[in-house]
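Incident log, support desk, overnight shift.

02:14 A customer reports that sequence design results differ from what the structure should imply. Their input is reproduced verbatim below. On-call engineer (initials T.W.) acknowledged and began investigating.
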């Protein structure tokens, strides 16, 4: 593949140098923070994260693909593409980089030893160059977000094509990047392809002057996110372990503060009419597990932690899942799902995960991370907005009392997934995989 003929302007080079200098100044403080987190045994700071400082990096054998994924959601999205590529090129080496421990666990859970995982180094030129030289990928593929200037610059200098798949560009991100165009604009000219996940994202990349030949609308690969085959078995085992098989279950997935307070208040209203209902809370970030348990106890509801590994009593009203990697199984178990990050202003997490298990969905008003997905789910009657304890409890009680309505909403979500397939094939074609068995 020919190197881009783009030549950065002097102002753009100065911006990149200034950005790099700032990172170098901050690096000692970031390292001290890592040491503190590690020594205090934070669950999100395993020793392997030392790789973020450019040491002990382990990559797959050279000549394969390097996928960068921020965390869990991006790993799941990239998995659809990786598995499709391996259908016609099963031996291709794949390295997945993440920046979070939760993303690392998701990668190993999905692929076991068939890929290599390492943490992406901090965006300093020599660190990025080291991992790229070691892996020598034929293509670097970034999933959704995290456009690192030095990472992309080093790929460009080494003549390694770098593309963005399922590319997301929110309105607020677009405005931010426009303000730092001297740093951001060169990145767009150094990219091989930008595969936008929706019309909004395509338009926002256009507004940022992405080259026409680079930008393509492929739609969202998360629509082809299959339910993991083992999830139903894991759900059955979880149900038996905690003795909850006969209870109506509301799963609050990927919750943020203050969503737990809202959900607990809603659950109190639900329990007045449906006393055997169980609220299962799965916080987005493991460092919040202890805090969320305290919130549950202070609510006055009878609460249990899953790590206690003891069955729920009949009077257990809330189960806090303080373990990673359980969410898909819990959605498979759920009667109703609330998808977090949507009452809290985080843009909303992946509503397609419960939809894959035919579970009706509630979300708050903040759904800007995946607006097209949420809109089509809402238009088809699979997703409903609820922001207050009263709104949540009313919708939950309606669904629990009317099985026909509940099942109709669940089946509508599954149908949306089936009707919106094709993004993975479009992405592979844009990247050149569908046209050649390279």
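02:41 Re-run completed on a clean worker. Output:
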């Amino acid at each position: 593949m020919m190197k881009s003929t783009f030549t950065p302007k002097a102002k753009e080079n100065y911006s990149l140098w200034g950005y790099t200098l700032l990172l170098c100044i901050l690096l000692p403080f970031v390292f001290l923070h890592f040491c503190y987190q590690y020594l205090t045994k934070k669950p999100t700071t395993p020793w392997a994260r030392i790789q973020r400082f450019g040491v002990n990096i382990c990559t797959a054998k050279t000549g394969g693909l390097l996928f960068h994924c921020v965390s869990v959601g991006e790993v799941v999205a990239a998995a659809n593409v990786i598995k499709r590529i391996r259908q016609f090129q099963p031996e291709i080496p794949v390295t997945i980089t993440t920046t979070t421990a939760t993303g690392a666990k998701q990668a190993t859970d999905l692929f076991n030893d068939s890929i290599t995982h390492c943490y992406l180094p901090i965006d300093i030129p020599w660190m990025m160059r080291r991992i790229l030289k070691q892996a020598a990928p034929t293509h670097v593929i970034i999933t959704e977000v995290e456009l690192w200037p030095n990472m992309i610059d080093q790929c460009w200098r080494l003549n390694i094509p770098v593309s963005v798949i399922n590319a997301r560009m929110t309105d607020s991100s677009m405005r931010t990047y426009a303000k730092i165009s001297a740093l951001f604009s060169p990145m767009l000219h150094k990219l091989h392809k930008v595969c936008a996940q929706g019309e909004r994202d395509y338009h926002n990349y256009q507004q940022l002057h992405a080259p026409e030949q680079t930008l393509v609308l492929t739609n969202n690969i998360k629509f082809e996110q299959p339910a993991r085959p083992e999830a139903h078995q894991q759900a059955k085992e979880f149900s038996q372990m905690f003795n909850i098989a006969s209870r109506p279950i509301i799963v609050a997935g990927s919750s943020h503060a203050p969503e737990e307070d809202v959900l607990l208040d809603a659950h109190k209203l639900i329990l007045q009419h449906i006393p055997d209902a169980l609220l299962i809370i799965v916080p987005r970030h493991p460092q919040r597990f202890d805090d969320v348990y305290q919130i549950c106890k202070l609510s006055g509801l009878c609460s249990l932690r899953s790590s206690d590994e003891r069955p729920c009593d009949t009077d257990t009203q809330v189960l806090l899942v303080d373990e990673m990697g359980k969410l898909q199984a819990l959605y498979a178990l759920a009667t109703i799902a609330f998808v977090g990050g949507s009452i809290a202003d985080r843009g909303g997490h992946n509503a397609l995960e419960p939809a894959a298990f035919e579970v009706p969905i509630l979300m708050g008003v903040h759904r800007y991370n995946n607006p097209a997905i949420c809109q089509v789910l809402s238009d088809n009657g699979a997703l409903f907005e609820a922001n207050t304890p009263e709104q949540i409890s009313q919708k939950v009680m309606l669904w629990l009392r009317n099985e026909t309505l509940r099942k109709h909403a669940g089946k509508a979500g599954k149908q949306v997934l089936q009707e919106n397939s094709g993004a993975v094939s479009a992405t592979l074609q844009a990247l050149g995989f569908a046209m050649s068995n390279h």
